[in-house]
Amino acid sequence: MRKPPLKILFEDNELEIIKAKTHDVQSQNKATSFYSNISDGQEQLSEGKLYQCDTSYSSSSLHSSRTLLEESQWQNYQKRIDSESLSEQAKKVFLIPTQSSEEWLANFTEKCLKVECFFKDTTFNTIIETTFNSDDQQLKQTLVLTLDYFTNLVTFTFFLLWKAVWNENQQDMTQFVSNSNSITEYLALMISLRVNEFRIDFQLLSIFESIIQPFPDKSIFKECTDSQRSSLSIDIIQQKIFMPLMKHNQVLPWSTDEVAFILSLINSQFYADLQIRNIIVKGGLNHYFRRINTISQFIIYSVVRNPNKHDRQDALGYWIDLAEKLQQNYDLEGLFIVYKYGIQLLLKDYIGTMPVLFRDLNRIPKINAFYEEHIKHNFKDSDNQKQHLYIPSFHKFITQIKRLELQIKTNKSLFHQISDIMFLLIKMSKRQQVLYQQMCPKISENEEQMIHYFTKGIEKELEANLQIPLDKETLVYIELIKLAKNIN
């Protein structure tokens, strides 16, 4: 009997890619994007340059009755923030653990000045002014995503509030920040598009209301608050690593139907909790590729570990059957991991030239034809399709973005194409949030263990069997080649 959903799924220090928390920037590798790295508390801006900022602004001036909440209200807000969901840098901005409100404001003002200097040194002023003076809603949404990609969601939002207060008689951000209606429009767009990164609460709304006048109707935040209430918290299923008992030469102790459901659930949850900036810009891709590399290596190992060619056929047949089930789910991300990055790589690099009687040869072209047909559009028009999961390939998205990043160095106009892809990712994420919430109540205890295994246990098992850390990719490759050549 299926039981109600637990506070489960995929939180682990080693799997930051799938958890709904802000990553600690200091703990991650340098951003793979060449764009400016303005991330709460970081000194370096715009490819390593340090900007000398105008210090004529006074932090003490922020003690305006019109703009500053009472210190008790700030402290109340501090208590209501889930500090566990903030990076160390974000904590310095949002929380006041040891600082007085004056110290907090001085620190925050310094950050805002740095952000302002960055904007003065770019073309964003012109872009912002042109966009928000137009009536093109799609263009405004694109701008919101682009701003976040080039800067930082939370930093830029509070920077706008700060500018709204202090730029009334200045023109360096012209019609955008000097017009409170434009700022509220930005906030509304930001919240509607980026629910996962910016979980709004009513205490923070009160801060916005105290600064921005006039403030729009609170109904614009309904989607965000509703999503916050309905979202599942991410928690560890159990402390001990779950390792299933398997029979001799058994690939996995579950049917391919069961495994396909779990992999599609994991992929759906990945999109549902997608934090685009943290994953694409802040180093989260390392965790993403580690996850898919681990499953790929496990697929290859499960086949080549058997020197007997008939056992290899059985193992390979299991994964081909799984790929067909993922095809039935319309899960392109699952097919990329299992078929393209697992089966296809196995056949090409490991056993393609081995004397193996490949009895499942006729099944491969059908899977490949399905994948190649749908990867072209990557389910971008699946909003109204309800009969399947329609999980797109995230790898396809990230490949497109990284290709554009290289081209944009010589052609700045292409950054709009990056925004278009991110806007599409937002739509995909919202669709998967709905599907994921529908799937979660159906999870059984056995399926919880499977989730735990595929997100944590599979890596531990593979490292134990190979006796090699998986981050030593060259050694892992050599060991798998040795196993592949040992055939009888």
UniProtKB/TrEMBL annotation:
Residues 259-336 form the Ras-GEF domain. It comes from the Eukaryota. One of its GO terms (biological process) is small GTPase-mediated signal transduction. One of its GO terms (molecular function) is guanyl-nucleotide exchange factor activity. InterPro entries: RASGEF_cat_dom. This is Ras-GEF domain-containing protein. Pfam families: RasGEF.
